[in-house]
Amino acid sequence: MSGIKKIKGFADLFQPESGIFTYMEATARMLFGCYGYEELRIPIIERTELFSRSIGFETDIVQKEMYTFLDRKERSITLRPEATAGIIRAYIENKKYIQQDVTKLCSIGPMFRYERPQKGRMRQFHQINCECLGHIDSYTDAELIIMLIRFLESLDIRKFTLQLNSLGCKICRPPYKTILLTWLNQIDPMLLCDDCRRRKETNPIRIFDCKVPSCKHIMKDAPSLFANQCVDCSEYFSTVIRLLDHEEITYEINPHLVRGLDYYTRTTFEVVSTDIGSQCAIAGGGHYDGLIEQLGGPMLSGIGFACGMERLALLIPEREKPRLDVIVAALEEPAKDIAFSLALELRDAGLKSEWLFKTGSMKSLMRHVDKSRALYCLLLGSEELAVGEISIKNMDKNCQQQVPLADVITYILKDKEVH
Ligand code: HAM
Questions:
Q1: What does the pLDDT look like over 21-79, one tens digit per residue?
Q2: Which of helix, strand or coil describes residue 214?
Q3: Ligand 1 in contact with 53 (CB < 6 A)?
Q4: pTM of the predicted model, to two decimals?
């Protein structure tokens, strides 16, 4: 009978990847905690409407990439393609806005998008997501971007570009839309892909996010929202830039950056790397003014970002696997039970330990001991048991010592401290 294989675009993460993920999560929790972010765990599935209402009907995510199904009561359910919508749903549902002026939330976990899998692009991928919600301003935007850069630096990721744009507000968007449409009307519609011909009618700004090379080429010359934003948006963005400059954060202004989700207004950003191939966005986010209200909450704003953990993992230098402290090797059958119990005691004392029993030559047993990369090896044979002493080998120093069985743990803990 053939075995069952995992689904395309999904992955099993063993060491060292799983270790790198744990390291990223621990670094995120520590660093974001310093900025006042609290962890929130939200469901992996939500009602489909939550995503179509927030991410935007014309986006690739909603049009092509969601894992949507009907539950047993025929309700449409979707595996979350991103975390922002769920975080805001939880924020509104639990009335967090009543308790605090500003709520800072961090959420880590898997997301699902039905995209074509390739290096750095999975159908199940993981994000570290931060949202700052409530009464926020340009200082909040700058603080969140600085926090993201500090996070990447603390993971030892240094080669990246921060791209910034301002996507305007409800005042400057409508006149800009007219300017863009007038420009698009001069373009032969047949030069645009089918999707973009439709987008022109429904949400023309989305054309900037089209991945089709011919559309990308055409949109290079399109008028930008950045150049057509209102005075308020322009001043808001200048403050963000001034604060980033003060902290010596380097960035590029990309006036055509619109991102793949519709909810952004004002500050938007993406962090890209040149070292991981075509799927180069390692983090992205931005400010949103209407989203909380659109999802049934009060008129408050938010800013957030998400990092793609699979893509960050490609940039983190491989770390040395944590070593085993002790390997207890039983040389003969009678020593097997003692080795088993001793390993349990060593673990109770906080030492990472394994035990080993292999029949065969001493040479082959020592091969297994070497392979374990343990700091100490405890050799247990009938001779040792007869005298109640055990031979402890420090594998790095290649020296051996006889120690009474009862003193083994104290000896190792002391020696390890010196080591
Ligand atoms: P996003 O740009 O769609 O934004 O995703 C954020 C990051 O998730 C990307 O920069 C990328 O690193 C990673 N990512 C996206 N799709 C995949 C995939 N198929 N495979 C691997 N990694 C992927 C959002 O999701 C927004 N919710 C971010 C945000 C938070 N905006 C405001 N708050």
A1: 999 999 999 999 999 999 999 999 999 999 999 999 888 999 999 999 999 999 999 99
A2: helix
A3: no
A4: 0.90
Q: Given ligand 1 and candidates 51, 82, 114, 270, which is best to mutate, with the most ligand atoms within 8 Å of its CB?
A: 82
Task: For a ligand 1 pocket test, name from 125, 209, 314 the mutation site with the most ligand atoms within 8 angstroms of its C-beta.
Answer: 125
Distance 249 CA to ligand 1 centre (A): 22
**Could you read off the pLDDT of 238-266 as tens digits, one per residue?**
999 999 999 999 999 999 999 888 899 99
Cα distance between residue 219 and residue 350, in whole Å:
60
State the Cα–Cα distance between residues 290 and 167, nearest whole angstrom: 13
- Cα–Cα distance measured from residue 190 to residue 380, given in angstroms and rounded to the nearest whole number: 80
Q: What is the rounded distance in angstroms from the CA atom of residue 379 to the CA atom of residue 368?
A: 13
Buried b (16+ CB within 10 A) or exposed e, 10-34: eeeeeeeeebbbeebbebbeebbee
By CB atoms closer than 10 A (0-12, 13-18, 19+), residue 109 is middle
Task: List Cβ<8 Å contacts ≥24 apart for 21-26.
Answer: 21/126, 21/309, 21/313, 23/155, 23/316, 23/319, 24/128, 24/155, 24/309, 24/312, 24/313, 24/316, 25/108, 25/128
Report the separation in Å between the CA atom of 282 and the middle of ligand 1, taken as the mean of its atom positions.
8
